[in-house]
Amino acid sequence: MNMGKPMWRKLAVSLVIVPVLGLAACSSSGGRAPEPESNSAAGTVAATDRIKIAVITHAPPGDTFWDIIRKGAEEAAAKDNVELQYLGDPDGGRQSQLIEQAIDQGVDGIAVTLAKPDAMAGALKRASDAGISIVSLNAGEDRFKELGAFAHFGSDEKLAGEAAGEKLKAEGIKKPICVIQDQGHVGLEARCAGVKKVVPGTEVLYVQGTDMTQVESTTTAKLQADKQADAIIGLGAPITMTLLKAKATANSEVAVASFDMNSQLVGEITKGNVLFTVDQQPWLQGYMAVDSLWQNKRGGFTIGGGKATLTGPAIIDKAVAENITSFAEEGVR
User: Fold this and answer.
1) Are 249 and 301 in contact (CB under 8 A)?
2) Nearest-CA neighbor of 145 among 304, 331, 255?
3) SS3 of 153, please?
4) Is 229 left (phi over 0), alpha (psi -120 to 50) or beta?
5) Domain boundaries, the chain
6) Tens-digit pLDDT profile for residues 160-182
7) What residues have CB less than 8 Å from 299, skipping those under 6 apart?
8) What pTM did the predictor assign?
9) pLDDT higher than 80, residue 328
10) Are the C-beta atoms of residues 82 and 49 closer than 8 Å to each other?
11) CATH code of the domain occupying 157-279
C-alpha cells in the first residue's frame, strides 16, 4: 500500500490548521484571536512579525533521529516566519551553555530537550526571568513545568518502555538485554525501567553511544557470554543497527527490538531482522515545539493544560513498517 505524496499533503495541512484551532480555545490572552494567516502548504509565510527561536537538543553527532526532529522544526519555522537556530550537544553542561548563548542573542523562544534537566536548571531560570518563552520536547515530560516550560511534546518514556515490554512478552521473550547508550539520560533509563516492569528478567547494558566501535564490541562480548539472553533492545535506530552487527559477530540467535526509527531500521523491520520499534514521531516534536512558541508569541496561546502532549508511543512492526516506508525515506517518521 503506497502512502506517498497525496496523503502527506493532507497531513501537512492538518498539522498547520489543527494547532491553531486547538490553541485558540486555550488562549491566555482573553482577547480576540489574531486573523488567520495564509496556509504555508500553498507556499505562503505567516504575516506575523518575524521572531527568533532556538531549538537546543542533546543530539549526539551522526544520530539520524535528530535530523527528523530538525526537519519538523524547520517546516514550522518556514510557515511561521521564524528565524530558527538549531543547536545541540549531548553534554548537559554544554547544552546549558547553548541556552545561555541563545539568551544573550535575544531569542523570543527556546525549545529544549531535558535529558539531563538538573544541568540546565540555572540557564532556564535565567531565560524565564528574561521573559523568554520556553517549551521542552523529546525528554523531560516529568520536569518541564518546574523548569519554566509551558508545554512539552514527546513520548512518555516509561509508558513507551512498558509498551515495548508488552510486545516482547507477547513474543515469549523472558530475558532481554536493554542497551543504554548514555548513562544518566532520564528518558533512556525510563525506557528500560518500563520494559523491566513488564518483563522482570530484563538486564541493562551500558555502552558509549558516541563510539559505535565500542558499542559493537561491548555488545558482542555480552552476547557471547550470556547464553540465556533471548532478545536485545536498542534505544535508538543507529544503536540498533550496530546491535545487528554485534548479533552477527557473536553468532547469536537473540531477537532484536528497537526504539525510534530511520529508513534503514524500517528496512530491517520489513525484512524481519528486527521485531519492532517504538516510534515517538520526532517530526511532530520538532514541528509542534516551534509552532507552539510562535502561537504563544502571537496570541498568548498555550497547549496541553499543564500536561505533556504525547506524540507516542506507537509500535511499528513488520505489518505497519511496510505501509510507512515512503514516510521514513522522506525523513518525516
Assistant:
1) no
2) 304
3) strand
4) beta
5) 5-154+281-311, 157-279
6) 999 999 999 999 999 999 999 99
7) 23, 24, 27, 29, 31, 33, 34
8) 0.76
9) no
10) no
11) 3.40.50.2300
| Structural domain 5-154+281-311, CATH architecture | 3-Layer(aba) Sandwich (3.40)
- Separation of alpha carbons 68 and 57, rounded Å: 13
Average pLDDT taken over every residue of the chain: 87
Query: Grid coordinates standing for 101?
Result: 548563548
Listed in order, strand segments (DSSP E) in the chain are 51-57, 82-88, 109-112, 133-137, 152-155, 176-180, 203-206, 231-234, 255-259, 276-279, 309-312, 314-317
Residue 329: band (very low, low, confident or very high) from pLDDT cuts 50, 70, 90: low
Residue 40 pLDDT greater than 60, yes or no: no
In one-letter notation, the amino acid at residue 261 is M
Three-state secondary-structure class, residue 188: helix
Instruction: Judge whether 331 and 292 are in contact, CB under 8 Å.
Output: no
Distance (Å) of CA 135 to CA 53, 121, 138, 307: 11, 13, 11, 12
Separation CA 30–CA 24 (nearest Å): 10
Domain 5-154+281-311 and domain 157-279, same fold? Reply is yes
pLDDT digits (tens, 9 = 90+) for 84-143: 999 999 999 999 999 999 999 999 999 999 999 999 999 999 999 999 999 999 999 999
| Pairing mode, strands 51-57 and 109-112 | parallel
